[in-house]
Design goal:
By secondary structure, the chain is of the alpha/beta class. It has helices at about 5-25, 35-50, 65-75, 110-120, 140-160, 170-185, 205-210, 210-215, 245-255, 275-285, 305-320, 335-340, 350-360, 360-390, 390-415, 425-465, 475-485, 490-495, 500-565, 595-600, 605-615, 615-625, 630-640, 640-695, 700-705, 710-754; strands spanning about 55-60, 90-95, 100-105, 190-195, 215-225, 235, 260-265, 290-295, 330. The chain has a 9-stranded mixed beta sheet, sandwiched between helices. The protein is globular.
Length: about 750
């Protein structure tokens, strides 16, 4: 059992003991039932916190860098399909749960049809694509036939134009069409799931590895035990950073945003490429480089000896150093350790390759050493993260509950042992102090509400300046990318012929859109996330500053309350100066994706304009030109296609208008759906901390005073009951507090290390 598992087991045992103690207090009627009910409620919240949040590890890198192979090596089984397709947009997630299993989740028909029609609108103009579209439903035989003819026309047109690689939209539609017959029974009006039985996990490959099926997939989750890593960890096999579809890169960014650690794979065949540096810049903007492990995945067939591999390691380490200070670089062959873990279940060819690699003792030692170090460090960091973040809040709650039970029981015992006090007068005075404490809480609630409103206003001003259409740098840069996009030289001559203008204009629009999409996911998304992190830091600083004053006021009020208790013989145990629970500062919120937003909200009218809205303009200009004399037509041609320039200008203006609308709408969403919710969450957590601590600190005086009047046998029996409960809750409260302090210290040391 790992250190973390042992620690967690101890805390669970204490939580169960505390639950029994609360039940005993309730049975003996030592406090009012309303109070024990609240204790039990908070204990439930603490136990939920102790379950732990899911800890995410994103395995990223370029296409063919060995991400799936690495995950297979980590789990000790050739489970995930190696070399999956590149046109599909989902991430295979592996959960390290105790039992094997999983599921495939399929898109519903409305989503499928939406994607089909969106891709149709983006196809190059061919056949009936030039006609104004009607929604296409691939569930109908005639519609699938229509789509097939449309794709064939596009293919022919593409070949005639010598355009090279086919359009991604063409590839998506072809996959949908090809896979329809096999997949139609899996698709419903809402999301459907296909369970994966423990002994049939490999069945997911036939869906993930074949584009005509994978295009219908929405999500994939596989459960597989990884004892050395522990449960409740998700390892994600992410899309390659250089995948041809920019939206796949956006999906990768969104997963990284919610990850705790990153494993970055680098192929020894290619080393670092341009796509790697772009992704590393993004990771740097998230300030997640300290949480990133770098793996140089060695192809032992390409590097036949240890010297060759060491030379490559130094080169990659130097290149990484341009962006990453002191990178954690581990060098090993994931395929070597996959074959090794599979043992006799590996094929004969794979075992032969493994035997060949083992023949070089120095090379074998090098990869074995690198792999062992990687596993050990990953396991340590995962365990530490679980301890300090996933248990911190639960421990704090348990400590306070145990202290509340102990303090209430101890107060009864101390007052019961005294016979020289005015019980009614004591009760009234202590209740007045409780009212004062509650009044302090009410004052702080008003102050926190004022702080919350002020911060929202400040954040709104920052956002308005950042997204300003005139002076906002990100808006200006993106508009410049659109308006300065050149007409490809191979289309310029064709642009002069009005007969081909709509067709060529659509090609131009497609190139513009691809360029803009790439710019948005690689540049705009990164800048927006960096901006969000700056605002998060500013908010954290303001809340820290303000909460320090709030905590000082709260602690002063609590100290006054404890002094009053002491005046009447009730000893308040020494308490640490109270502070917020150790929880992640981001509150689990992340800024929305601008790339995804653009796909849904913008760049829709542009393609319709290009395909269908320019008909009137084209007809008009063609008619004018036809009415010109021969000499005049020649001069018009010599001017270099003024009509085409006008049309291109029109398209760029439309795209610019869409971008401005998108930034305006996105800015509003950024403020309300992210920043405002972040401020609300931080303020709520701060207030809940005060309320919980105030509630746990207060004693049930009515019950205490009533019990203090008991005499004789009943008095002795009650004292015995109180002693018994104290023998349980007293040491447990102290032990839980020591656990909590240990977690906090480990948290702080971990932050310092990073």
């Amino acid at each position: 059992m790992s250190e973390f598992a042992q620690f967690k087991k101890k805390i669970r045992e204490r939580a169960n003991t505390l639950k029994d103690a609360i039940a005993e207090v309730e049975e003996l009627r030592l406090v009012e039932k309303s109070r024990t009910a609240r204790w039990r409620e908070h204990l439930g919240h603490a136990e939920e916190a102790l379950q732990g949040q899911l800890l995410r590890v994103a395995v990223v890198g370029s296409v063919k860098s060995g991400k799936s192979t690495l995950i297979n090596a980590l789990i000790g089984e050739d489970l995930l399909r190696r070399g999956a397709g590149v046109i599909t947009a989902f991430i295979t997630r592996l959960r390290t749960n105790g039992e094997r299993g999983g599921w495939l989740e399929f898109k519903p028909w409305p989503r499928v049809l939406e994607e089909v029609n969106a891709s149709v609108r983006m196809l190059p103009m061919a056949g009936d694509a030039a006609e104004e579209p009607t929604p296409l439903d691939i569930r109908e035989d005639g519609q699938r036939e229509r789509l097939g003819k449309l794709l064939e026309g596009v293919r022919t047109e593409w070949q005639q134009q010598a355009m090279g690689q086919l359009d991604p939209n063409f590839m998506v539609l072809s996959a949908y069409l090809e896979g329809y017959v096999r997949m139609r029974d899996h698709i419903g009006e809402s999301v459907t799931r296909l369970p994966l039985e423990p002994n049939a996990l490999l069945e997911h490959r036939q869906y993930v590895g074949e584009e005509s099926r994978a295009v219908y997939l929405k999500d994939v989750e596989i459960c597989h035990p990884v004892p050395w890593l522990g449960e409740n960890v998700e390892i994600a096999d992410c899309q390659g950073s250089d995948a041809p579809n920019p939206m796949h890169y956006d999906l990768l960014q969104q997963y990284i945003l919610k990850s705790h650690f990153i494993v970055y794979t680098i192929s020894s065949r290619t080393g670092l490429r341009e796509a790697d540096f772009k992704l590393l810049d993004f990771i740097k903007s998230l300030r997640m480089l300290p949480q990133t492990f770098f793996v140089l995945n060695a192809d032992l067939d390409a590097h036949p000896n240890a010297e060759s591999l060491s030379e490559l390691e130094e080169r990659v380490r130097t290149e990484l150093g341009w962006i990453v200070p002191s990178p954690r670089l581990h060098v090993f062959s994931a395929l070597h350790h996959l074959f090794e873990s599979m043992g006799e279940s590996a094929g004969e060819r794979d075992r032969s390759r493994l035997a060949l690699w083992r023949g070089d003792a120095a090379l074998a030692r090098q990869t074995e050493k690198g792999y062992a170090a990687f596993r050990e460090q990953l396991a340590q960091r995962v365990s530490a993260q679980k301890t300090r973040v996933l248990l911190g809040s639960g421990l704090s709650r348990l400590t306070m509950i145990a202290g509340a039970v102990r303090d209430n029981v101890q107060a009864q015992k101390q007052i019961l042992e005294r016979g020289d006090i005015d019980r009614r007068g004591v009760e009234e005075e202590l209740k007045s102090k409780q009212k004062a404490l509650n009044a302090t809480i009410a004052t702080m609630e008003n102050s926190i509400t004022g702080l919350k409103d002020a911060l929202k206003s400040e954040m709104d001003d920052e956002c308005r300046a950042y997204f300003d259409p005139v002076q906002g740098p990100i808006v200006e840069e993106t508009l410049a990318t659109a308006t300065r996009h050149p007409v490809d030289v191979k289309h310029r001559r064709a642009f002069r012929d009005p007969r081909h203008l709509p067709e060529k204009l659509h090609f131009f629009y497609m190139e513009l859109r691809r360029s803009l999409s790439r710019h948005i996911v690689e540049r705009v998304n990164t800048q927006l996330i960096a901006f969000a992190k700056e605002l998060e830091d500013a908010l954290e600083e303001r809340f820290t500053e303000s909460s320090s004053a709030f905590w000082a006021l709260f602690n002063a009020s609590l100290d006054d309350y404890h002094r009053e208790l002491a005046r009447f013989g009730v000893d308040a145990p020494p308490r640490e100066r109270m502070a917020p629970f150790p929880e992640p500062s981001s509150e689990g919120l992340a800024p929305p994706s601008f790339a995804g937003f653009m796909e849904e909200e913008a760049l829709g009218r542009g393609v319709l304009l290009v395909k269908f809205g320019l008909g009137t303009l084209t007809s008009l200009l063609v008619g004018v030109k036809n009415r010109l004399g021969k000499r005049e037509r020649q001069l018009a041609d010599e001017r270099g296609g003024g009509m085409a320039q006008e049309a291109v200008h029109l398209v760029k203006n439309e795209v610019a208008a869409e971008l401005l609308h998108a930034f305006r709408t996105y800015g509003q969403s950024f403020r309300t759906e992210y920043l405002h919710k972040l401020v609300d969450a931080k303020a709520r957590r701060l207030m809940e901390g005060f309320m919980l601590r105030a509630e746990m600190a207060q004693l049930d005086f009515s019950n205490v005073m009533r019990r203090s009047e008991m005499e004789g046998v009943n008095r002795r029996r009650l004292l015995e009951d109180l002693d018994r409960v104290l023998r349980t809750t007293g040491p447990m409260a102290e032990e839980l507090d020591s656990f909590r302090c240990a977690v906090n210290l480990e948290w702080l040391s971990g932050e310092t290390e990073e």
